[in-house]
Design brief:
Elements (H helix, E strand, L loop, with lengths): L2 H31 L12 H11 L5 H34 L8 H15 L13 H8 L13 H4 L8 H10 L6 H5 L2 H7 L4 H25 L8 H23 L2
Helix pairs in contact: 1-3, 1-11, 3-10, 3-11, 4-5, 9-11
Amino acid sequence: MPLDAALAPFKIHLDEVRNCVAFMKASNRLQSSLGKVINWELKGTYEVALATSFVRLDPLQFRPVLNGLFVTAVAAFEDFLRSVIIVVARQKVQRSKTFHELGQSFINRHMEYSGRLLATVNSPPAHLSVDYYDLCRRLGTCLPDSKSVEINETALSFIRGVTEIETFVDCINALGYRLQLDDLSRDKELQKLLGTKKARETSKELRNSLREVVQNRHKIAHSGQSYAELTEAVFSSRLDLLELTAVSIVTHLKKG
């Protein structure tokens, strides 16, 4: 799976989310205007009955829907980050002739995270389907001179707090790739969105903004529709931030 294949599902999801918001707004506008264009003399028809039931509905409240859509968008971003980690790890294996050539940083990370996932055998993660026997079998291929290496991709992407951008960057670097927050922050579109000019300034703002996104997600998950800080403008800006960050990650990693 190339990096573009990791990005595509995330972008599709964001498009679907934006379409949902546009549909909601159009529905509210239609509801307030429909009565003026319907020929109410055509009583008894399905179309009039449908229009009547639609007009009588309470106007759609955006807040709870935006909250729910926002949670799914952040979840899709997290899935994107995990997919990138898997792609990067696969590429590293494909370029290495033996397990030893993966480098000590990669090897240590792989062993550590395989061990972490194995340690959940009595309480498996609810969001993962883990074959613990296969985890052990794959570890058995990871010997210094082995040329038939099968890494535990699921284990490498089993990272708590992967949506913290520093955690993600640290993982990418541990797998033998070079990625710094400043690399992402040179993106002109990100700078425009964040209202910054220099890479270092953008890095700080990007880190803080992504942290706020995660905090927003946690607040919604724990307070439900009572959480009211996520306005439509903030919602739209956060989606743009996630998308531009994802595009910048893929663009940089594709450069090698």
